[in-house]
Amino acid sequence: MTTDHDEGLEVSVRRRNPLTRLLVIAALGLPFILPASPAAAAPTTPARHLGDVVPAPVETRPDARGAFRLGPTTVIRTAPGSAAARQVGRQLAETLRPATGYPLPVLAVRSTPLPEIALVIGGADARVGQEGYQLDVTRHGVTIRANTAAGLFAGTQTLRQLLPAQIEASDRQRVTWTVPGGRIIDYPRFAYRGAMLDLARHFHTVDEITAYVDLISQYKINYLHLHLTDDQGWRIQIDSWPRLTTVGGGPGTGVDGVGPGFLTKADYKAVVAYAAARHITIVPEIDMPGHTNAAQSTYPELNCDGVAPPPRTDIAVGYSSLCIGDELTYRFVEDVIRELAAITPGPFLHIGGDEAHATTDEDYRTFMQRVLPLVAKYGKRASGWNEVTQVDPPTDVVAQFWGTGTTNADLADAAARGNKVIMSPANKSYLDMKYDPTTRLGLSWAAYIEVSDAYGWDPATRVAGVGEDAILGVEAPLWSETLRTLDDIEYMAFPRLPAIAELGWSTAASHDWESFRTRLGEQAPRWRLQDVDFYPSPQVPWL
Ligand code: TNX
């Protein structure tokens, strides 16, 4: 509970016990009485170094004299007048309070004599752009400067990793909370750094999705793509076609019939808002004209012969197709796009388009030429799996490459025309691929993907003719044919998701497996404290 005072002073006190309240008051009013470090001896934890961060920062200048010790009198000060900066400050306080036990009041007033973590809009190195930040650590405090709240948020995720791993504990730890001194200047290589969850094959609840948002936001992921519909289930409420969810997402749907459920519009908006607060934009996907059996088995009129096929709970692909020559198909598609666009503040709407093996090439072209303009009509930019490049789409359409090869003529032609590409090569970035033949979960059609494989490629040289300028970014899809629980999701995503996140954020010049595996190994104690059920790859020196 946060109280918002007129003068911009915010102190989280209502829910705190009387002792903590006293400490808050002491910290604010009697700055010099409290010691700057905890009295009890702290167990030694490995010292953090300025570059010990995933994804690797662009530039680090350590200063051994400048380490900052977070203490009971530390305050968090945010840029006056910026509600978004204040929200980042509040989130930082909430992250740091449980393990430190410090009050960490969030203030919007300048020149307190207390040691502070300052979140400042403006004044950063010119290179940081819209998502980067500059982080300065001296004996007196930490200053994060950025041009946007997103940049400040990214900076706070770095600060979190610069603190001892115990900072992730949910109860008070006896630790000396030292932040290594120096300066970091950091900004992303690519604008789009995505993850994807498949809600169709097994539904994932709002709680599971938001838990994943919490995890991926630590690694500066800024888009979460939700695969909302497929042959086995329809997972988003559409008012004009209500049975899509009650039947198409109802009992018995999902792979093996055990993944039912759907997001109401209220659920979806809650996910969008939760992600936005962590500077992650939701990209909703309606997969079509194939991967549509859930809709077609629910509404017979969506089939050319007017007969509803039975629901499917197996994992075959490529057998379903909307009826391309029927006007009703486009009324259906427009209803869905209109309703989904209306609850989607982000710029993208993904129309799938993959594996339409039951649609002829000519029909596929007809369909896309009708549907792509509908996405624009409702104010969104269309993205689609790379097959969409077969129809020479308008240049604002984004193609998501999921192939396993290193050549794709349609994709290269689209890139040459100016279409942007998101790289998700299935044999590198698909988080549902098994790590090795012994992995209990996952599939293996594209590859076994160990951590070094997930890390060992360059988005800008992966496909001939699709270079750095054509790349919007990277995405790590996680298909859920074999996944049911949050633990399952975590086991497949960690540690490979951070590898893809680093490919999306860090410079090509900094790409270095030895450095990455060491920094990754240092994440393990954090994941244990966060209860992340990660795969302990033998390739990584886990702490
Ligand atoms: C291919 S990738 C698919 C999905 C499956 C996935 C399983 C893509 C665009 N289509 O339908 O779930 O493989 O790995």
UniProtKB/TrEMBL annotation:
- Enzymatic class: hydrolase
The EC number of this protein is 3.2.1.52
Q: Where is the Glycoside hydrolase family 20 catalytic domain?
A: 190-358, 363-507
UniProt GO molecular function: beta-N-acetylhexosaminidase activity
Q: Which GO terms describe its biological process?
A: carbohydrate metabolic process; glycosaminoglycan metabolic process
Q: Which InterPro entries match?
A: Beta_hexosaminidase_sua/sub (IPR025705), GH (IPR017853), Glyco_hydro_20_cat (IPR015883), Hex-like_dom2 (IPR029018), HEX_bac_N (IPR015882)
The alphabetical list of record keywords is: Glycosidase, Hydrolase, Signal
> What do the Gene Ontology cellular component annotations say?
membrane
Known catalysed reaction(s)? Answer: Hydrolysis of terminal non-reducing N-acetyl-D-hexosamine residues in N-acetyl-beta-D-hexosaminides
Cross-referenced Pfam families: Glyco_hydro_20, Glyco_hydro_20b
Q: Determine if Signal is one of this entry's keywords.
A: yes
Positions of the catalytic residues: E355 (proton donor)
All residue ranges annotated as the Beta-hexosaminidase bacterial type N-terminal domain in the record: 53-187
**What is the superkingdom listed in this entry's lineage?**
Bacteria
Give the signal sequence positions: 1-41
Q: Does the keyword Hydrolase apply?
A: yes
The family this protein is said to belong to = Belongs to the glycosyl hydrolase 20 family.
Can you name this protein? beta-N-acetylhexosaminidase
